[in-house]
Design a protein that fits this description.
Elements: E1 8-13, E2 16-21, H1 26-30, E3 37-38, E4 41-42, E5 50-54, E6 61-65, E7 72-74, E8 81-83, H2 99-181
Antiparallel strand pairs: 1-2, 3-4, 5-6, 7-8
């Protein structure tokens, strides 16, 4: 198992690390509740740094990483809002990042946002070009269908003309045969 960085709240969930970044909201913090204690039965290993407490509404045992201290979460059993207790001797400010670390995170977030905005602009251009290409292909398809209809109509006309010519030739042959017999 790996350790979570100072910038993240993490806990072991089924041999993995579930993390909550500083930007995540309370809903994400609710997902950080350790499901290891369900109905008082130990399901996963509880670490010494975890805060273990009971839901005041239903009494179910909950466990969360110490960096979740002070958060308000919903109980995994009954869904009631629960304030994660702050252990004695610990202050929530102990979990705060230094101004330099916050500034670094801010720059990284802005850089990431700029890259995402550029990707969005590029994808928007691709979408527009695909829409234009689709329109062009649809017009070509319609033209091809019209040509096909015209060719089908011409083939029918040729078939009718051929039938008329065959009928006329048959009558001419019959007339010539009659004249030769006379």
């Amino acid at each position: 198992m790996s350790d979570a960085s100072d910038e993240e709240v993490g806990l072991d969930i089924q041999d993995g690390i579930s993390t909550i970044n500083a930007e995540d909201d309370v809903a994400a913090a609710e997902q950080a509740i350790d499901p290891s204690m369900q109905d008082g039965v130990l399901q996963e290993e509880i670490r010494s740094t975890d805060i273990i407490f009971n839901c005041p509404a239903c009494g179910s045992s909950l466990a969360i990483d110490y960096r979740g201290a002070g958060l308000q979460i919903n109980c995994t059993q009954c869904g009631a809002p629960v304030q994660v207790p702050i252990p004695s001797g610990m202050d929530v400010s102990d979990l705060d990042l230094s101004p330099g670390e916050l500034l670094t995170q801010l720059f990284q977030a802005r850089s990431s946002l700029l890259k995402r905005d550029q990707q969005v602009a590029e994808l928007t251009q691709v979408i527009e070009s695909l829409k234009a290409r689709r329109g062009e292909l649809e017009r070509n398809r319609m033209n091809t269908l019209h040509r096909y209809a015209e060719l089908a109509h011409m083939c029918q006309s040729i078939s009718r003309s051929q039938a008329e010519i065959t009928g006329t030739l048959s009558r001419m042959v019959a007339l010539i045969s009659e004249e030769q017999q006379l």
